[in-house]
Amino acid sequence: MNNAVAGFSKLSKKEKINWIAKEYFSNPEEALNIIRNYWNSDEKLQQLHDEFIENTITNLYIPLGVAPNFLINGKYKTIPMAIEESSVVAAASKSAKYWATRGGFKATVIDTEKIGQVHFTFNGDAEKLESFFNQIKPKFFSDTQNITKNMQQRGGGILDIQLKDKRNLLDNYFQLHATFETKDSMGANFINSCLEQFATTLKEEAQNSDLNIQVVMSILSNYVPNCIVRAEVSCPVEDLTEKHISNPQEFAQRFVQAVQIAEVEPFRAVTHNKGIMNGVDAVILATGNDFRAVEAGVHAYASKNGQYSSLSHAKIENGIFTFWLEIPLALGTVGGLTSLHPLVKLCLEILEKPSAKELMEIVAVAGLAQNFAALRSLTTTGIQEGHMKMHLNNIINQFEANEEERHLIKTHFKKNVVSHSAVVAFIENLRK
């Protein structure tokens, strides 16, 4: 790119694409064809997608799959998963089938409290500020009545507002720390609207009381340590037996050790938790929720004791193997993409139109299932055997193998170790 572009957002979609093709590609027509090939043939549907974000040029497809046979709290579920990584859906499905014959998954929502804050500075007597806050606290509720009315009718609303003194962290720094219940909506817009009104009320009342308060910002928090769901599986140790587990006691002990390592070793914990999030993010994306917000909150929660640690835990007690996790999940099943994106609506239909609490349970179970599959592989056959066999298709597609070559490659690697170099060598040898 030689020059900056002026007024890009004001260009038409066609003009934007033509500029990109001309500016960045030696073969502009080839680039244009790739961009157009990923447009939806239904113009109305494409326009809907175009308007989700700004400066849209095309769609980046991520595969949407399903993992069936999840027995959750006594009911079977088929879980939709949107993800590009090989073996994730297969691993989840395998875990679902495994635990369906061992009592299934148990999931419980512990709490659904969400948080927002008004950050402000105050240079003066803290006791005077506290007295002022206690005096005007009812006004925060009354001034937001027009915002909270509909939410209150659904059983939600503002739970509490507290004044927090944070001067130990920054000079003159205080917060209004508010907690919310948003029922089946994720509630971001609702919370932020309430917070902005809190800030307005705070400034107006401070001015009337001649207090030197300066509001810095008002924003929800994606760290929701009191919006927690627990998912677990358990069975007698001897029931863990299957194809790759001939000695269930030894397997259970090694599995617990693997989890304990992730509890104390951050380098392992990050990869361990990434495996959990493979399952979590895939369901969140499929159901139109914000996986970036969930990721940020989950990893903060993994560090809540001062060191990054495993989100899941395991134990053997009185001959019973138990594996569980507790994670913060602020999710919604109404509003946002859930009512706009046709595939998101379809995914929620597959899940039988869950409430936000039910979706929290499903997502947590998907994360636990993914983690179990990874740890079972790591402590038995090794992670690469299954993963690389699933990755084989990607390598075959990369080399544009024809049908005959595909058959020969897959037949060969049924009995041979899959690695990128081994597949490449086999393809090159085929084509000589």
Written account of the structure:
- This protein is α+β, with helices and mostly antiparallel strands and 432 residues long.
- It is 49% helix and 19% strand.
- The strands form 3 sheets. It has a 4-stranded antiparallel β-sheet with strand order 3-8-10-9. It has a 4-stranded antiparallel β-sheet with strand order 5-6-4-7. Strands 1-2 form a two-stranded antiparallel ribbon.
- Strand 9 and strand 10 form a beta hairpin.
- Helix 4 packs across helix 12.
- The mean pLDDT is 94.
Short description:
The protein is α+β, with helices and mostly antiparallel strands and 432 residues long. The chain has helices at residues 13-24, 28-37, 43-50, 88-100, 126-143, 145-153, 188-208, 248-264, 266-286, 291-302, 342-350, 356-378, 383-398, 403-412, 420-430, and strands at residues 64-72, 75-82, 106-109, 114-122, 157-165, 173-181, 213-221, 228-236, 312-317, 320-328.
Layout of strands and helices, then pairs:
Blueprint: H1 13-24, H2 28-37, H3 43-50, E1 64-72, E2 75-82, H4 88-100, E3 106-109, E4 114-122, H5 126-143, H6 145-153, E5 157-165, E6 173-181, H7 188-208, E7 213-221, E8 228-236, H8 248-264, H9 266-286, H10 291-302, E9 312-317, E10 320-328, H11 342-350, H12 356-378, H13 383-398, H14 403-412, H15 420-430
Antiparallel strand pairs: 1-2, 3-8, 4-6, 4-7, 5-6, 8-10, 9-10
